[in-house]
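Board work, copied verbatim: Gustatory receptor
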Amino acid sequence: MTELTSLILISCYELSFIGRFICKIWRIFFDNSLSTVLTTLETVHEKLIRLNVDGLKKIKNINWISIVIIIVNIMVIIISSTIWIIMQKHMLDIIDMVIIVVLNICQCFCFCEYILLISYMKWMIYIINEQIPERKSCLSTFRDMYLEVIECLHQVNRSIYGVPAIVGFIGANVAEIIFTIYGYLLFPRDYINDPYLVISFIWLLMRTVNVIVLYKIGDATEKEVNRMSLALHQRSLIEKNPRIKRQIKCFFLRRLHEHFHFELYGMCHVNIRQLFSLSNIAIGYLVIQVLFKLNKL
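↓ predict structure ↓
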């Protein structure tokens, strides 16, 4: 049991570093694809502006929330990294500490960029869903914009940010949460005066919030995309044109057969149910380890 615990903790520690490298390297390789997605989203946004739809000004609220998240993450990284450097200045070289800090900042920016991008696409889908029952514009126009945004969302989750999100945003964060709780909070090296206690609480809080934010964004986006079926049903009840009714029926049937799931790289579901499952596994492992440790004492 001791060997298994050591192996898991070592794996968690290594995964936290691997995640930071993957976030940076993977992002560089798919920079052109991300530029294409951003260009497509900009085109859709311009179409919404030309259609003069309601609710476009609400994006300002989303931007402010995202900016707050970015600022808080950067401040936490700078403060905790500064304290960590002060504590480790006699044990590590300056170059090693600078590399670790830079990797943490790059991972933070990558995570915030992903959250901003998903929030932006979720907002676009929300605007389209709100406009479909209004009958202010042609249904095919909103359908085409919806399909473009969904394709961008699939591309972002499948290739551009698929692996970094799984390994860096989820795997590395969960690994650091387990490693911090077990190694620095439950069983620290110095039970009376642990110099890492403050940093441990800061990192634990930040990693936990990042995981919760990611799963909440994924769950909210999944629900918003699937709300399209309800918007089409509402439009079909008030539509009088037989041709448009047929379009609604065809698109509605297509939506039923293509129920959207927020997935990363086609294999990792990101919703509240999966977050509860992941939390139960992590908590169960920690409880078993605590009981095992107490029995040894």
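The longest strand covers residues 263-264.
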